[in-house]
Design a protein that fits this description.
single chain; about 400 residues; alpha/beta; Aminopeptidase; Alpha-Beta Plaits; 8-stranded mixed β-sheet; 11 helices; about 25% strand; elongated
Length: about 400
């Protein structure tokens, strides 16, 4: 066990420059959700180079590789990385700056893919020393609903062989590079999109008695819906109702006929999630009707909340302490952000952990989904080595239980 850890540490250092180059290639050449064709081709090229068999075209642009150790059909552990970028124009002045205007890896998916390829090369170098199979899942379209995870599942990614566990790594900007974090149980929220259209009767702003003002109705609806969180939600169940877009298309002296608003609802309880949708529709339509207007509510159902299997998460946290030292392993807080990795976690015991990428001394601290997001690339050595360590140790434990 100690010898294997030393081998993985040595290989992660040896492959570090290559993994950095891979990450920079992905960062310079980002592709949006469902458009990851060149990204997939590059992944396939590297897997060919490593002599790792794979299937491409899963969920159109996804790639699934297999690293077979001794007795490969006996047990399997899966490692997942997401592939897509965001519609953001990068502002960083770095040599690996995105060359695709309006597109950027601002959520760290370039890091996830690079670390998984690094782990794949390490594992392939050591495959004669472990029993079972490691499945490599390169998943498209995490940032765009319905997401690539559910499509890959429907196309059989969790079969032939079926993994015992699925593990995913995700960067975080509030943790130093070299550190990792874990949280068992409910970790990330469900996410749904709310689209509301409020209709009234437009007219001249100077004659309000002759109009049914949809802007005024909308303002009452937005304010009223906040009481769902403050007065209807169980205080121990995190809930968010937020609106980020209002379109009225009037003018200073024109009241429009209709207003459209868009928002999000996030929580951790499926029964309450459904009730929130009902309350939003009842309150919005009731307010609009009471003020003489009409209202239509449409809910676009998004990802479920992410549940990290407590037993697996505990194992990974302990393994991370062995690999990095206890001072580099942190306990995470719940987040209201969402992840389609939740679909994997509904099917197979799974865990998404966090990889620290911040370095305040280098000025690397920007939040995810911002135009100045970047990572301290030393985190790539931690990420690739740790994923390989997790896979080998879980397979070793599972092989003993056969």
């Amino acid at each position: 066990m100690e010898h294997l850890k030393q081998q993985i540490e040595a290989l992660s250092k040896s492959y570090f420059e290559e993994v950095v180059a891979i990450r920079r290639h992905f960062h310079q050449n980002p592709e949006l959700s469902c458009e990851e064709f060149q990204t997939a081709e590059f992944i396939c090229k590297k897997l060919d180079e490593y002599d790792i068999p794979y299937q491409k075209g899963v969920a159109e642009t996804g790639v699934v590789g297999l690293i077979e150790g001794k007795n490969p059909s006996s047990i399997c552990v899966a490692l997942r990385a997401d592939m897509d970028a965001l519609p953001i124009t990068e502002e960083n002045d770095v040599v690996y700056k995105s060359v695709a205007h309006g597109k950027m890896h601002a959520c760290g998916h370039d890091v996830h893919m690079a670390c998984l390829l690094g782990a794949a090369k390490i594992l392939n170098s050591l495959k004669d020393g472990f029993e079972g199979t490691v499945k490599l899942i390169f998943q498209p379209s995490e940032e765009s609903y319905p997401g690539g995870a559910i499509r890959m599942i429907h196309e059989g990614v969790l079969e032939n062989p079926k993994p015992v566990y699925v593990i995913a790594e995700h960067v975080i900007n509030t943790m130093d590079a070299g550190d990792v974090g874990f949280r068992p149980g409910a970790y990330m929220a469900s996410t749904d999109e709310i689209f509301i259209t409020v209709r009234g009767k437009g007219g001249h702003a100077a004659t309000p008695s002759q109009v049914i003002d949809p802007i005024l109705i909308t303002s009452h609806i937005i304010v009223a819906l906040q009481q769902i969180v403050s007065r209807n939600a169980d205080p121990v169940v995190p809930t968010v109702v937020s609106f980020g877009k209002i379109v009225g298309n009037g003018r200073t002296n024109i009241i429009p006929d209709e207003v459209k608003i868009e928002g999000t609802v996030r929580t951790y309880n499926e029964a309450w999630r459904k009730e929130v949708h009902q309350r939003i529709e009842q309150m919005a339509t009731g307010i609009a009707s009471g003020m003489g207007g009409q209202c239509e509510v449409r809910v676009s159902h998004g990802y479920p909340f992410l549940f990290n299997d407590p037993v697996l998460t505990g194992k990974l946290s302990s393994l991370a302490s062995e690999y990095l030292g206890t001072g580099h392993v942190n306990e995470l807080e719940q987040r209201m952000t969402a992840e389609d990795f939740a679909y994997f976690a509904r099917e197979i015991p799974s865990c998404m952990y966090r990889l620290g990428i911040a370095n305040a001394g280098k000025g690397i601290k920007s939040n995810l989904h911002t135009s100045t997001f970047d990572v301290d690339e030393i985190s790539l050595e931690t990420g690739s080595g740790l994923m390989a360590w997790f896979a080998t140790e879980l397979l070793r434990e599972l092989s003993k239980k056969k």
